[in-house]
Amino acid sequence: MVLGINTIDTVSLKNNVAGLAKTADTYDIPTVLSTIGREHNGPLFEEIRDVFPDEEVIDRTTMNSWEDEAYVEAVEATDRDRLVMAGLWTEVCVCFAALSALEADYDVYVVADACGGRSTADHEHALERMVNAGATPVTWAQVLYEIQRDWAADGAREAHQISIDHAGDFGMAVQYGDFLEE
């Protein structure tokens, strides 16, 4: 599915997805992974598989993951009322699942920079549609820093490393700050 993405370059997309996955892992956020037609569309990014090597990947046939019983059961088993969603394509799989989750009374946060669409119009209009239905758009870095909130709190070392590895210029600034402290 990544071959049809034209709203973000693959390197940036994979970097953002890796940052999000590491954030979820660092803070023990329950994660539900799914694909659609894995043998035709390819596996999950290696960056996700590396972070969650033992996590079951639900291989769906439906474009809307919310129409897959195993997926919905996995989400319900997390016992969470807030969902952070990302995936490919923004205008299809992500949008349909987010709208269904909103209908099921979940708070939905769509990680816009860990999603990709076939065109800028597709991606932007899908985000707009989700926002109009009640979803909140965020970036992967917003997710990390909103959870961490305090550099003196638990998880700061891991958040620091995730920033260095995946937060671009900010990550370089964090690394430079470390250098100055040595």
From TrEMBL:
Isochorismatase-like domain mapped to chain residues = 14-142
Q: Report the CDD domains cross-referenced here.
A: YcaC_related
**InterPro entries, alphabetized:** Hydrolase_YcaC-like, Isochorismatase-like_dom, Isochorismatase-like_sf
SUPFAM superfamilies according to UniProt: Isochorismatase-like hydrolases
Q: What is this protein called?
A: Nicotinamidase-like amidase
Q: Which organism is it from?
A: Halococcus salifodinae DSM 8989
Q: What is the lineage of its organism?
A: Archaea, Methanobacteriati, Methanobacteriota, Stenosarchaea group, Halobacteria
